[in-house]
Design a protein that fits this description.
Growth Hormone, Chain: A, 0% strand
Length: 447
């Protein structure tokens, strides 16, 4: 092997982690600008002839549609990624997402074309959901499977950093857009964050094309160990581990949409806080989340993934109570501090769970399996979270206690999922790379 080739191989783990970070940042940015717009603009623009609460629920319903499309994207691109390679699948998801999000920026409103406006919005949202459903698992695996031995959790966490980076980017842009004078934001300003997606798409493709295929997938392909029907094999051989992993993902997925999408609506509508103050505060929280996730991944490497995840989810059960008390102060300090408490617990969990979950499944069905667990969990727990929050806040006006209990339940489900995985030995410690050595006990027992 030449010296140049050796250097290229040595740099691939860093390049793969950087590409995973860039790709998921772009994908989640596209997904998050929709969630922010669904709280701030879409009720007026696409559902204007309804009661304000009904309009908000309808807007959040279109938001939830993306979650129900995500499992399909996970199955589709998981199958393609396990059959034909992670890289090809990830290029396709990036193009799909960028196209759908840019298209939303050009959509006519209800006032212009009537019922066709929300119909087209839902169609774009479905495409977004399919795309992000396939993106997450592939990005995590490209980073984790390129990682040096014993560093899978750290490298896989870079794919997870795309989430706070995307929040920071989307919230920052919306914070600027909402400062527009008069009706400029509602008339056209809301379109700007969506149109910027095209620029990000080009940048993301240039970065992603420079990464080689996953070495673990390449090795499995050379040994002809690939599954012909990954979805069937995954659910036939590792149903329990998929279910346990699905439960474990809950607070990492639903927690964000509680503290961002729903909390935007709650703080502006119920508490009467200015939307610019809320968005600025959540932008600061995104910085806290970004730093917190880096620290969480390093701590988990030191003490072990299972211990860290159990501790983080246990703290998340307690977090919503001080959060709501502080948000009620209606100050930037109160909002930032309160939401940061909950976010650090949930996002620390989110940073570590990706690498942990990828150790559960064998390489030949790994893309399909972690995508199925993550995206099905997202559809069940993430998509309904803002809507349940709206219903609770309307049924218990003036009381945040039911909302806090709801959040605690979400965190408790994650604690249960990690406990079950840990007790069953599915992901107790990282195995050396290679096809035969990453088979979960459940699959090994069937061979």
């Amino acid at each position: 092997m030449s010296a140049e080739a050796a250097v290229t191989i040595e740099r691939q783990p860093v390049r793969a982690a950087a590409a995973a970070f860039a790709g998921t940042t772009i994908e989640w940015y596209d997904f998050f600008v929709y969630s922010t717009a669904s709280a701030l603009a879409f009720p007026q623009l696409f559902f204007p002839n309804t009661d304000p609460t009904v309009g908000l629920l309808a807007s959040f319903a279109t938001f939830a549609v993306g979650f129900f499309a995500r499992p399909f994207g996970g199955f589709l691109f998981g199958h393609l990624g396990d059959r034909f390679g992670r890289k090809r699948a990830l290029i396709a998801t990036l193009i799909l997402m960028g196209t759908a999000t840019t298209a939303i920026g050009f959509l006519p409103t209800y006032a212009q074309i009537g019922i066709w406006a929300p119909v087209l919005l839902i169609l774009c949202r479905v495409i977004q959901g399919v795309s992000v459903g396939g993106e997450w698992g592939g990005a995590v695996l490209m980073a984790g499977e390129h990682a040096p031995e014993g560093r899978r959790t750290w490298y896989a966490s870079f794919a997870q950093l795309g989430s706070p980076a995307a929040v920071l980017l989307s919230m920052g842009i919306f914070a600027l857009a909402t400062r527009m004078a008069g009706d400029s934001f509602i008339n056209w300003g809301w379109r700007v964050p969506f149109l910027l997606s095209f620029v990000l798409l080009v940048i993301g493709l240039l970065i992603r094309l420079g990464v080689k295929e996953s070495p673990e997938f390449a090795e499995a392909s050379e040994r002809e160990k690939l599954s012909r029907f990954p979805i069937i094999d995954a659910f036939r051989n590792s149903t329990k581990s998929i279910i346990f992993t699905l439960l474990a993902f809950t607070i990492g997925t639903a927690g964000f949409y509680f503290t961002n999408t729903f909390l935007i609506a709650y703080s502006t509508r119920t508490l009467g806080i200015d939307r610019s103050l809320v968005l600025e505060s959540l932008t600061i929280v995104a910085i806290v989340q970004f730093i917190g996730q880096i620290a969480a991944a390093r701590i988990a490497e030191k003490i072990g993934d299972s211990k860290f995840l159990l501790a983080a989810s246990a703290l998340a059960i307690l977090a919503p109570y001080p959060m709501f008390k502080l948000v009620e102060l209606k100050s930037q300090f109160g909002i930032v501090t309160g939401v940061s408490i909950a976010t650090l617990c949930a996002s620390g969990f989110y940073a570590v769970i990706a690498g942990y979950a990828s150790k559960v499944f064998p390489v030949e069905v790994r893309y399909t399996s972690i995508s199925a667990a993550y995206q099905l969990g997202g559809a069940i727990f993430g998509g309904f979270t803002p809507m349940i929050g709206v219903v609770l806040s309307n049924n218990y006006p003036g009381s945040w206690m039911p909302l806090a209990i709801f959040y605690s339940i979400l965190a408790g489900i994650s604690f249960l999922g990690v406990f079950l995985l840990s007790s069953a030995g599915f992901a107790g410690s990282e195995q050396p790379s290679g096809v035969a050595s990453v088979i979960s006990p459940e699959i090994a027992a069937t061979n």
